[in-house]
């Protein structure tokens, strides 16, 4: 198309025209299809049909692109409004109950981290809840069994009574989000759960806060366990 007698190429270029000129002319014509304004006009039926098809494609692509940008802007605006209402409610809560600045800072840090992570974690939870119970049990068993099996009791349970461990993974095991600097439990708290470190590290000490024993802490890494006594109470 275009190389025929009196076609685009013969009309708008010369035999000795440089490749740069030809490339720029073709690029100009392609971009001109978005606005349908270009001095290069079809010279025969084949070129006219090609121009019509190119113009339709340009119209569809431009409409799709503009629609996508518009939807993205609306979503960002909605998220910004929600974030503004969230911040306003949080400040109102701090003022009403006279929360101290250090505690308010800790709350802000934790809540902002949790809200930032809900794009992955909350969507995962919502998707899992769409599954039927038997399929959800299979997924949770494969996801949580490797962590639980790091403890000898659960490793034995996995070998002897796999169905029981499957039920535990579905009914009794929950994720506990912990941020840096948070206190999971303190000395004197009732022991009502056993904890497994799935990611990151925990620092464990037996003494009161600020004591020498508190300084001599033990670092617990991935798949470490703590508060085992809750199993036997």
Structure commentary:
- The mean pLDDT is about 80.
- The chain has a two-stranded antiparallel ribbon. Strands 2-3 form a two-stranded antiparallel sheet.
- It has helices spanning about 10, 20-30, 45-95, 100-115, 120-130, 135-150, 150-160, 160-170, 210-215; strands at about 195, 200-205, 220, 225.
- It is built from nine helices and four strands.
What would the keywords be for this entry?
233 residues, 4% strand, two-stranded antiparallel ribbon
Rg calc: 33 Å
How far do the termini sit from each other? 84 Å
Determine the number of helices (DSSP H or I, runs of at least 4 residues): 9
Strand order of the largest sheet: 1-4
Provide the residue-averaged pLDDT.
Answer: 79
- Unreliable spans are none
Which percent band covers the strand fraction? under 5%
Q: How many beta-strand elements?
A: 4
Instruction: Give the helix level as a range of percent.
Output: 55-70%
What shape does the CA trace take? elongated
> H/E element string?
HHHHHHHHEEHEE
Largest sheet: 2 strands, antiparallel
SSE class: mainly alpha
């Amino acid at each position: 198309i275009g190389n025929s007698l009196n076609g685009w190429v013969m009309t708008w270029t010369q035999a000795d025209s440089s490749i740069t000129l030809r490339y720029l002319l073709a690029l100009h014509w392609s971009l001109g299809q978005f606005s349908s304004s270009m001095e290069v006009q079809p010279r025969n039926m084949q070129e006219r049909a090609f121009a019509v098809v190119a113009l339709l494609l340009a119209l569809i692509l431009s409409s799709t692109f503009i629609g996508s940008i518009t939807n993205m802007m609306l979503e960002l605006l909605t998220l910004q409004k929600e974030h503004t209402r969230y911040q306003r409610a949080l400040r109102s809560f701090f003022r009403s109950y006279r929360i101290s600045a250090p505690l308010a800072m800790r709350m802000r840090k934790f809540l902002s981290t949790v809200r930032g992570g809900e794009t992955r974690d909350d969507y995962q939870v919502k998707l899992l809840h769409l599954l039927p119970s038997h399929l959800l049990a299979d997924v949770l068993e494969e996801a949580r069994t490797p962590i639980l099996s790091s403890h000898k009791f659960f490793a034995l349970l996995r070998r002897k009574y796999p169905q029981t461990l499957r039920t535990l993974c579905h009914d009794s095991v929950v994720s506990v989000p912990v941020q840096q600097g948070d206190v999971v439990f303190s000395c004197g708290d009732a022991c009502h759960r056993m904890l497994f470190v799935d990611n990151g590290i925990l620092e464990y000490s037996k003494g009161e806060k600020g004591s020498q024993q508190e300084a001599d802490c033990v670092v617990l890494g991935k798949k470490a366990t703590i508060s085992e006594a809750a199993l036997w109470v």
